[in-house]
Specification:
It is built from no helices and 11 strands. With 117 residues, the protein is mainly beta. β4 and β5 form a beta hairpin.
């Protein structure tokens, strides 16, 4: 089993920045990728960005350039640096951990990001 814990959410004004962190605990052998997803009220869960064990990153088109995902393999951690935040970025942000390229998936409980106008 893998436990996933996110941190770093909060309230920020439009144009501001936040850095989210995610750490995996437990049987972390075999982690092949980390991903960040978000869900705004009344909307679907959408991919923000992910990074695999080789460091290859993938971003949602609307977030590339403003958000940066990075991984600290030795620490089983991943970060999401968010800049130029806008009210439409308000959502609960979830960290996803994939074992063996998705054979198993684990999710954190989410961290709230609120951007005020």
């Amino acid at each position: 089993q893998v436990q996933v814990v996110e941190s770093g959410g909060g309230l920020v004004q439009a144009g501001g920045s936040l850095r989210l962190s995610c750490k995996a605990f437990g049987n972390t052998f075999g982690i092949t990728s980390f991903g960040w997803y978000r869900q705004a009220p009344g909307k679907t869960l959408d991919l923000v960005a992910d990074v695999n064990m080789y460091g290859r990153t993938n971003y949602s088109d609307s977030m590339e350039g403003r958000f940066t995902v990075s991984r600290a393999n030795a620490k089983d951690m991943v970060y999401l640096q968010m800049s130029s935040l806008q009210p439409e970025d308000t959502a609960v942000y979830y960290c996803n951990v994939k074992i063996d390229w998705g054979r198993s998936n684990y999710w954190g409980s989410g961290t709230q990001v609120t951007v005020s106008s």
